[in-house]
Amino acid sequence: MITPDREWLRGLPKCELHLHLEGTIVPETLMALSQRHDAEPLTLEAARALYVYENFIGFLMAFKAVSERLQAPEDYELITVEMVRRLAEQGVRHAEVYISIGIILRFKQQLHVSDVIAAVERGRKRAEQEFGTTVFWIFDAVRHFGAEEAAAVFRKAAELKQQYPSIVGIGIGGDEARGPAEDFRDLYAEAKAAGLHLTVHAGESVPAGSIWSAINIGAERLGHALSAVNDPELLDVLAERQIPLELNVTSNLRTGCCGSIEHHPVRLYFERGLMVTLNSDDPPMFGADLLDEYETVQREFEFTNEQMREFAANSVEASFLPAERKVSLLREIESYRSR
Predict the structure, then answer these.
(1) Residue 204 known to be catalytic
(2) What is the rounded distance in angstroms from the CA atom of residue 119 to the CA atom of residue 123?
(3) Is 277 helix (H, G, I), strand (E, B) or coil?
């Protein structure tokens, strides 16, 4: 039995590659947002209750209830600063964060995306200067809203990327069963031509065919990829092509997409030589941030410190950082000593 050294894991330089900005809001901040905007503000107890759910659909509803309290650009600036502070406390050097632009465009007509991005950029710059952790943004579309709405998200990313180089990519989340990746093939080609990186949530709650579809439309990174474990040919392709996987073990357990930690494929993927990274997804909603995730995975699957170092190195290599920064971080990881 391996007993993780939490402080060693905290000091290990690492990147967070699958994190939703709206999903970083802790109950205390949600209560503060509610006091700003709700006629009958949430108590802390009521705010905490919103983070309790029983399945994946329940999680989506909880995410919706939390994100509804983001009603002004200043709200987004606040949660950005708080997110970066908490990332820095975990030893995260760089994060690539999804923003639910599809939700803003459909449900928040009082907000302009350009104003929201200006706000998160103010928060990012201030927090990076204060805490040292850097952030890139990925514009996330809701796949079950359809290709037309996704097109608006991706084209807004291409437009604002000219002003804000921290916008690096696009993705599709939401209900895979109602929004197959193939529907977005042309839009992904358009986004790639605009210089955007391509990510896809795939194989989280549906069979492995969803992952094949994501690969076929050009995904550079795959979020979750849980169901790949059931397709030996797909595992071979993922290993051969070294397509990075953004794994979220605690998230998969809390949403019910994986029945038990013993059945999670993280160890199998690692031993098969897949490009595995560890991520937290929506930390307050799942009760685990990235440091917790590293600790849990090491303890439950008995990875050595050297193997945990490999997870950290994978997170750097799979990031969209420029080569010079990657080399610098990889050297830090290599020189980071076991205790």
Answers:
(1) yes
(2) 6
(3) strand
Answering whether pTM is above 0.90, one says yes
The answer to whether the beta carbons of residues 140 and 168 sit under 8 Å apart is: no
336, 308 Cβ separation under 8 angstroms: no
Q: Is residue 108 part of a domain?
A: yes
Q: Give the ranges where the chain is alpha helix by DSSP (H).
A: 6-11, 27-37, 44-49, 56-67, 73-89, 101-107, 113-131, 147-161, 185-193, 209-216, 232-241, 249-254, 266-271, 283-286, 290-301, 305-317, 323-335
DSSP 134-161: EEEEEEEEEGGG-HHHHHHHHHHHHHHH
Structural domain total, the chain: 1
Whether residue 337 contacts residue 36, with contact meaning beta carbons closer than 8 Å, is answered with no
Please check whether residue 339 lies inside any domain of the structure. Answer: no
Catalytic residue from among 204, 246, 293, 295 = 204
Amino acid at 271: E
For the stretch 184-240, pLDDT in tens is 999 999 999 999 999 999 999 999 999 999 999 999 999 999 999 999 999 999 999
Q: Report the alpha-carbon distance of residue 125 to residue 67 in Å, rounded.
A: 22
CATH code assigned at 261: 3.20.20.140
* pLDDT top residue among 54 and 287: 287
Which tens digit of pLDDT belongs to each residue from 123-182?
999 999 999 999 999 999 999 999 999 999 999 999 999 999 999 999 999 999 999 999
Q: How far apart are CA 213 and CA 183, in angstroms?
A: 9
